[in-house]
Amino acid sequence: MVVDHFDITVPRGAIYGFLGPNGSGKTTTIRMLCGLLLADAGEDTCLSFDVRKQASEIKKQVGYITQKFSLYEDLSICENLDFVARIYGVKKRKDRATKILADLGLADRARQLAGTLLGGWKQRLALVARLIHDPKLLLDELTAGVDLKARGDFWDEALHLSKAGVTVLVSTHYIDEAIQCDFITYIAYGKKLIDGLATSILIPAGLTT
Ligand SMILES: Nc1ncnc2c1ncn2[C@@H]1O[C@H](COP(=O)(O)OP(=O)(O)OP(=O)(O)O)[C@@H](O)[C@H]1O
Ligand SMILES: [Mg+2]
Predict the structure, then answer these.
(1) Distance, CA of 32 to CA of 13 (rounded, Å)
(2) Pocket test for ligand 1, best of 1, 2, 24 (most atoms within 8 A of CB)
(3) DSSP per position, 39-94
(4) At 23, is the secondary structure helix, strand, or coil?
């Protein structure tokens, strides 16, 4: 396995930054964490569930924004949301979708086809779709080509979620994003180099914005 003896503890409700060069193992780790990929060895829990034995329970409570847009491009925003909400068995789907679309500034575009959205709007839709079932853990992998405004909106929502007790694990290459995290870890060649309080790691290293 490309990730070797990696361990992190992410406190509930924290914003946790996951840093490291391309190919270092961030996506692989996140996929193992939420039960999409089985590690060759080791033990882990996610949201108090065993990642080896209780992956289906974990998946119900996680919202995972992947690096590549993974919703249906030929469905509208509201159709995509309805589809995801049905999969998760969300109650009062329409009310929930209406509220979350309004909260994240997508209400006016609800009938637009997802495939016609540009980068930042696509990322907003991905965020809305991954929050529709009220997850306890949000996993975000930086989407290429997203504008700063959309990224800012993501961070506003991440702070809001964190205050509400949702844990946010965000993979990023940007120091100005890392400094907004409570904790960070840095991975290279599949091994953890450092982890701890973001301010304790970044400020002494002069890595602030
Ligand atoms: N199951 C596996 N077995 C062997 N190699 C793998 C496996 N899964 C991923 N890899 C490889 O391991 C490396 C790490 O990939 P990963 O996608 O986790 O990196 P990343 O840190 O997310 O990179 P990026 O910043 O580009 O998103 C890649 O070269 C990938 O092809
Ligand atoms: Mg990745």
Answers:
(1) 20
(2) 2
(3) -SS---EETTEETTT-HHHHHHTEEEE-SS--S-TTSBHHHHHHHHHHHTT-TTHH
(4) coil
Residue nearest to ligand 1 atom 19, measured at CA: 23
Question: Is pTM, for the whole model, over 0.90?
Answer: yes
Q: Name the residue type at position 158.
A: A
Asked if CATH classification 3.40.350.10 holds for the domain at 1-61+135-209, the reply, yes or no, is: no
Return the residue matching tokens 């301010």. Answer: 199
Question: How, if at all, do strands 45-46 and 15-19 pair?
Answer: unpaired
Domain limits, CATH 3.40.50.300, in the chain: 1-61+135-209
Q: Which residues line ligand 1 (CB under 6 A)?
A: 1-2, 20, 22-28, 67
Q: List, for residues 28-42, the tens digit of each pLDDT value.
A: 999 999 999 999 999
Mutation choice for ligand 1 from 27, 30, 169, CB with most ligand atoms inside 8 A? 27
Ligand nearest to the CA of 22: 1
